[in-house]
Amino acid sequence: MTLDPVHFKGITQLAGRIKRNVDASDHRDFAATVWDEWLDPLRNDGEIVVEPVDEQHRRMVTIEDIALSDDQFPTRHGVDSGTINPTTFKNGLVLDVAQAAMSAVPSDLELHRSRTVVMTVHSNDATVDFHDDWQMRDEGYTRERVLHAPRVSRYESAVVHELALYLAESEHACTQAEVVEDLLILDGPIYPKGLLNWSYREPELADLLVENERPRDVVENYIELVENFAKRDVPLVGFVKTPLSRSITRTVRQARGNAPWVNDAAFFSQVLGRSEQSEDSDGSDRNRDTLTFTNWFVSRGGSDRAISTLDDAFDLERELSPEEYEVTFCVMHDPRDDVIYRIEAPAVFTHDADRREKIITQVLKGVAIERGPPLAIEKADSLARISKHETQALQDSLAETLDSERDMNYDTKRSEQWGLD
């Protein structure tokens, strides 16, 4: 059953009852004030959580011009990891499976064949045991492992999902690191933020992150990845397609009692969006021929704090000075689809102004051409993605292998029948 016209009209009329005391132009003005006066640096309880790497500025490039510009790096590689999503079985097991792949531009078919596969399993049954050593398959092209997840009383799905996802990605990146000669782009942030956010979600998860070797090993992989690329002087970058950071928004809200943006991406959309219309425009005729972007910033707020100089990175051993690992980022806006992307890199790769310029120029070119993530990321995503059909087939096969049925609920059943995510 769908909405009848009378229902549709009624819902839109309900929205008309929502009154706002501030119009969109006031929001844009407030965003401009925050940009002009708050970010150099942005402090929270006396600590600097965001500050420019160099001079703070906004820039723009014509999409056609940047698309036709020369590549800044002769070869580009991308890494991504895809999962089947957490699956619960009636025998008490909760598991997820992730596969990671690396792409190359220009293409390298042997590299594209390589995979790292991780199955993470949670069980509250102390008698469940299995071998979790790395094994090779597919003539040595696939490296795989079963990982016994730390036991928790809640959040089993989050634990198996994030451990599988980030272990597969980091292991594959570390294993294939020597193949990369010019630039590596991770599909997502440069550190495992979903896992690092455990510190803020629940005391049990926070304790795991500090005390258990499984999540610590994953974080250590990313630290070693930074060190490997720094030693070889090859830039390591993260391309975040859906930025969810709230460091700026949260800090402004605490200081002013109000910040009208859902998150930092919404704030930067106000700062970087350009319209040729008057202030009351709905943006439908926004300027669509230029990409706009910010300077680079250092981030020490939210999940970025753990690897910053404000924290101790869980006392993990590190070869470089602490400030070299800090997250630096810049933000870009593509007006064609009105989307915000965040580009991240460890500070060790963004101290030099020329290198910062090369990185952002290469990413801008990729976005201009692809109207989305650069080609290296698109290819990595395509290689690592596990389709909905493959996911269901795998889940059914796993149920047969484990001699147990999937623990279904109504939402799961509806999702499979209706094709919902």
The total of helices stands at 15
Please summarize the sheet with the most strands: 15 strands, mixed
Overall outline:
globular
- Please provide the ordered H/E string of secondary-structure elements: HHEEEHEEEHEEEHEHHHHEHHEEEEHHHH
What's the count of strands? 15
Mean pLDDT: 91
Derived from helix and strand composition plus strand pairing, the structural class reads alpha+beta
Helix content: 25-40%
Q: Give the termini separation.
A: 19 Å
Low-confidence segments, ≥5 residues, pLDDT <50?
276-284
Based on CA atoms alone, the radius of gyration comes out at 23 Å
Explain what the structure shows:
- The protein has 15 helices and 15 strands.
- Helix content is 38%, strand content 21%.
- It has a 15-stranded mixed β-sheet that branches.
- It is of the alpha+beta class and 421 residues long.
Which secondary structure elements does this structure contain, and how are they paired or packed?
Layout: H1 5-15, H2 24-37, E1 42-44, E2 47-52, E3 58-62, H3 63-67, E4 76-83, E5 87-88, E6 94-105, H4 109-113, E7 115-122, E8 135-137, E9 142-148, H5 156-175, E10 184-187, H6 193-196, H7 198-201, H8 203-211, H9 213-232, E11 236-240, H10 247-256, H11 264-272, E12 290-294, E13 297-299, E14 327-334, E15 339-346, H12 353-370, H13 375-384, H14 388-401, H15 410-418
Helix pairs in contact: 2-11, 5-9, 8-9
Quickly describe the structure:
It contains 15 helices and 15 strands.
List keywords for this structure.
alpha+beta, 15-stranded mixed sheet, 15 helices
